[in-house]
Structure formats: C-alpha cells, structure tokens
Amino acid sequence: MRNTDRRTRRGRARWWLLPGLAVWLLVVACATFVPQQGWDPNFGPVVPHDSFPADCSLCHTGGNWHTLRADFAFDHAKQTGVALEGAHASAGCLCCHNDRGPVQQFAAQGCAGCHADPHLGRLGRNCADCHDERSWYPREAIVLHDRTRFPLVGAHAATACFRCHPGAQVGNFAGADSNCHSCHAADRTRSTNPDHVQLGFSLDCEQCHLPVGWQPARFAHPASFPLTNAHAGRLCNECHTTPNQYGGLSTDCVSCHAADFAATTQPNHGAAGFATDCLQCHDTRTFGRSSWLHPDEFPLTFGHAGHQCTECHTGQVYAGTSSDCVTCHQADYQATQNPNHATAGFGTDCRQCHGTAGWSGATGHPASFPLTNAHARACTECHTTPGVYTGLSPACATCHLSDYTAATDPPHAAFQMPQTCEQCHGTVTWGQGNWNHQFPLNGPHNETCFECHNNPANRLQFSCTHCHEHRQSAMDADHDEVNGYVWASANCYQCHPDGDN
Given Cys at both, which of 1, 47, 160, 401 links 98, Cβ 3.0 to 4.6 Å? Predict the structure, then answer.
C-alpha cells in the first residue's frame, strides 16, 4: 500500500507540472510538421486528456497505447460546428484539446485564448486587424499605418519596421517619434552641400526633402531667381562656389555665363556688341536655341525661320541689313523660267507674288481673275506668248471656245447660249454645269433638248402643242371659261409653268 501511495503522490506531483508543460508543448507542437494526430516524443510526455471520450478506440489501436489509428479522421466542422481554416486546419489536435481546460473557455477569448499578445495590449485586442488564419505574418501593414499620424509613403514604405520602432522584432511598436529629426539626425549632421548644422537649417526635413527620395532637395529658391528648367536640379555649389556662402550672389546671367557669351560664334556676341543680359534672347530651357524676336518689320516666318543669323547677316554685322527680298533672292529671281521674271519685267519685290511658306506656287495673279481650283495652272498654259503676261482677255471663251463648241448636252452653239461660261460653270470641274432649266424636266418632260426645242431656226423657242395627245378642238372646249385662252405654246407655259394641270 505504501508503494502504491508513493506512486500516487509522485503522479500527483507530475500533474501540478503539467499545465506549465502543456503551454510550452503547445507552442512547440504548433510550429512543427508533426502529423495532426501525432505527437513527437522529443516534446516529452503526451498532454493528459483524461476528460476525452471514454472510447479510446476512436483514436488508438488496440494493444499499443502510443500508436494512433492510420484511418483516423474527424470532420471538425460537422462534429463541432466550428470550421478550421488556414493554419488552424493543420494544427495538432492536442494544441487546443488537452487538459488545460475546456477548449470553449479559451475560444471564447478569441485569439488571446491561445496566442500571447507580443504587443502588450498597445495595438488592441482585435488581432484580425493585422493578422489572419493563413499566416501569422501581418497583412496590409502600410495601409493600416495610414490611420496613424505618419502615413508611410515613398522610401518610408520600404523601410523595415525596426528602423523606426526599435522593439518591432518582439512586437513592440510604441514610442516612435514622427519628427524627421528623430530618425534623420545623422543625415543632417553629415550634410556638407550645404552644411545644414553650420547654416542652422531647420530640423524639419520636410521643408526641403520629400519621402520619395532624399535627393534632390526641393528648397524654394527666392522668387527673384526661380530655378526653372536647366537651372533646376543643379547642386548648390555649381553657382554658390564659396563653401556655405549662399547670400549676395549676383542674379545677372553673365555672372555664370560669361564664358558662354565669349565663346559664342553663331553669331559672335562680342563682335556684334550684344548685351550680356542673356534673357533678351535665351531662356532656361536650353542655351543652344535663342528665342530672340526679329524686328516686326521683318518677321522670321515659315521659310525665313530656323536659319542661322549669318545666312543673311554676313560679316557679323547685324544692323543696317536691307529688308528687300532681292537682297537675298537675286539669284532666285534671275534663275526663274516659269515665268522668266527678268524677261517679263517683273518687279523685284517678291512679296507681290510669293510668301514665306514656299518659294514655288506664286499667288500674285490679279484679283479680277483669281486662279482658283482648276485654274491654278502653270503661267504658260494661258499666257502662251513667251514673256508676255499682260493684255490677256479674262473672257472664258479665250481659253474655252473649243469646249463651248464641242458641248452637246445641251449643244451650246446650236442653242446660241452665251459664251460667259461663269453663268453655269465654276472652276472646280468643267463637266458639271450649275444651270437650272426654268421648266422642270421630270416625268414625261424628261426628254432630249430638241424634243421641245424643235425649231432649227431658233432653238430658244419651244413647243408644247406638238407633243400632247389632245386635239385643239378638245382643248378649246376645256378652256371655254378661261379668259384670254389661246392655243399656243407660250400661253400653255404661262398658265402651266410647272407642267401641272
């Protein structure tokens, strides 16, 4: 009996140790790859489960207390009403079901029932705000950080948590200071261009820097000299050459660009006596192109634009150059053959016929006869006498008499139609006249010209009575109440101008 009591007391002593041992075993077991119904002997004794169902054969095989049934299966959702999702589906059964107490007691506490809070309660009790059942690794941390007073943007979003939260490795995110200087004091101290400490720059880094990148800084240069285009993005010491001296620098262009001014040869600024105020001709986009405006009396448009100054201003002389076209275009004037300008005695003021968009395609025809559409032809097609461009009649028949004679629909000559072609034709195309017959030619009246105009001696006359299938006696009877009725085509047209009854 005494031996039995001694074993009983030793057994009871072990039971006092089991709750602490169980916690340690649960943490280890949940992080291993031991089968869900298994137990690694290295974990120590199996957690007691005296309160489990009395039918041991549900899990164990007969004759071997340490071997579980190979065909053991348990539908947790069906049997308990609680579905195991994510990592919980692969956790060992004994991690939750053991003699620490009823599993419902711990499940009622939510995540905290099984998982110790490494954040010490500073992030609240709702673990699902950052974690899910698939993995303990936090999700959407950057989005959740936006709820704080320091949203993570730019380089801050890629920075490890512990860089700002020293206790992040153990889940402690408290105590982070949102002031730039709390993290970037060393950056401010070692800055030499410019020396932030020596110059007493503010500790608020956001005045000049952005979180997307530490360089370049966005220091607001004085409004009297804004850093635009090519001036932007430069290092301070490119202009402020005296170390850490940023006041009193001249804003005159020549203070930095004197060498550029002296080296310029197209045109030579010094020889031409140009002013050293570069802004008169240049802007900050690029030094290579000038935005200087030529005088209004000779604007550089189209073909005149884009040329080098020395193409017109030879010998580096930029004043007194004649604005007469022939000054530059004498050779073009002499070489022109269609028409020959010199032989024809044309003036040397090229602007009378030419523009700056293109040398060919002169536009100087008299306004009394504009060359529109099909009339826009070579000069010699109308001015057939070489070198003679005056005295030509503007009458259409001068050029189009053969077209007039050959016309058959209607036959212009037979109908003695006038030779003023513009009454019916335009310059777009010769084949489509815009003359409208006064009497509508539709229905039974859609005949050839000579069906109605049947008098060879006078084609302008027309006949109605010879076509209509009625006798004069019948028409006389129908018109016995019409005053002034006469059996004649002219009278028919007078009362029936549209051909209706």
Answer: 47
What is the full DSSP assignment across 22-89?
HHHHHHHHHTS---TT---GGG-SPPP-TTS-S-GGGTEETTEEEEE-TT----HHHHHS----GGGG
pLDDT tens digits, one per residue of 95-149: 787 777 788 888 888 888 888 888 888 888 888 888 888 888 888 888 888 888 8
Those residues whose C-beta lies under 8 Å from the C-beta of residue 133, and which sit 6 or more positions away, are: 85, 86, 87, 88
The 10s digit of each residue's pLDDT in 421-453 is: 888 888 888 777 777 788 888 877 887 788 888
| Burial (CB count within 10 angstroms: exposed 0-12, middle 13-18, buried 19+), residue 482 | exposed
**Among all chains, which residue has been given the structure tokens 């006078």?**
458
For 176, how many CA atoms within 13 A lie in the half-sphere containing its CB? Answer: 20
What does the angle CA 136 – CA 142 – CA 146 come to, to the nearest 5 degrees?
A: 125
Closest CA to 68 of 76, 77, 59: 59
Q: Coil, strand or helix: which one is 134?
A: coil
Q: Which residues contact 414 (CB under 8 A, 6 or more apart)?
A: 459
Could you tell me the pLDDT band of residue 44, with boundaries at 50, 70 and 90? low
Q: 358 φ, ψ to 5°? A: -165, 145
Helix (H), strand (E), coil (C) string for 403-447: HHHHCECCECCCCCCCCCHHHCCCCCCCCCCCCCCCCCCCHHHCC
Q: Two tokens at 315? A: 């010998």
State if pTM tops 0.85. Answer: no
Bridging pattern class, strands 64-68 and 60-61: antiparallel
Q: Which residue has the tokens 């008098």?
A: 455
Look over the chain and give the mean of its residue pLDDT values, rounded to a whole number. 80
- The reported pLDDT for the residue numbered 9 is 34
H-helix or E-strand spanning residue 260: helix 254-263
Most confident of 41-45, 171-175, 474-478: 474-478
- What tokens were used for 6? 């001694």
